[in-house]
Amino acid sequence: MLLRSIRASLGRYLAILGIIALGVGFFAGLKSAQPVMLSTADAYLRQLHFQDFQLLSTLGFTAEDAEAFASLEGVARAEGGYFADVLIGGSGGQEVYHVMSLPEQVDLPDLTAGRLPERADECLADSHAFSEADLGKTLTLSEENGEDVRDMLPGGSYTVVGLARSPRYISDSRGSTSLGSGSIRGFLFLPAEAFSSEAYHEIRLWCDLPGELYSEEYGAARDRMEAGIKRLLSRRGSERYAVLRAEADEELAEARAEIDRGWADLEQGRMDGEVELAEARQKLVNAEELLRKNAALVNQGRIDLEEGMAQIPAARQEIAENLALIEENRQQVEIYRALLDEAEILLTENEETLLELIEASDAARYAELAP
Q1: Number of domains, the chain
Q2: pTM
């Protein structure tokens, strides 16, 4: 009966067998492909030291924090890094990129073209967003970036010198952002010296955990590490907070001292100002009194001037009369001087005659007395 049924619909029977064989083949392929894919991914990610933990903190991290995590038991590598979402481009069009400091220990880039950046104005670009034709291209930060971004990336322009893949991006998606259209176009790696920041934005840890990635053995080992990392993260966070609080308190104390000095200077200035104001008011009173006195003197002087001006014609007349009298007296003086000169001549002549008479009288007396 079965054989008769098979013979009657041999084509349908063979089709069913083929479908079953194809399904079994797909199932076997999928069952064997998963371990191979996981093994390949594990080897690739281990080669690039893909992070086992990414640590973030609102207070940031210091180089001492990175050293503390690097010395933690089970941690093979620890590296601090910087990152930011930035707008690149001008008025012709802008796109958002996730900019990161170039890793040297954890999450190493997989170079596909060009070379690694060697200077602060060079960058390594996402091979998914750029092509080899973009090597040598200059990327410039948009002026629409916030002041914090411009301060953190003072260079402003960066030349693409290489292309790479990153183990941090397994899929084609580069994530979302609050900037621009809300979608990140790609990533860029810059040397750490291109960033101006007092603290790391993250610390990435590679622990070289046993077991393949995503396996139960790996998950259990990661869970064992997580508790110690959280404790250290909490302790370092508290220490970081204490340091920042101490710095803030010191700056606050200095600011308060400066304010106190300012208030003291203001109070002293107010007192000095009141003294100067009182002196100025007294000077103003004195000046007003002096002004009144001077005004009286000016008025009296004006009266005297007017009286003097009124007396000028009479004075001129008197002067003219006095000048005429002087001229008359001068003429009389000239006459008297001429008479005096004649009297002096006559007197001289009389003196000479008198002398002659005296000499003659003396001569006669001597003659009478002579024997």
Answers
A1: 1
A2: 0.63
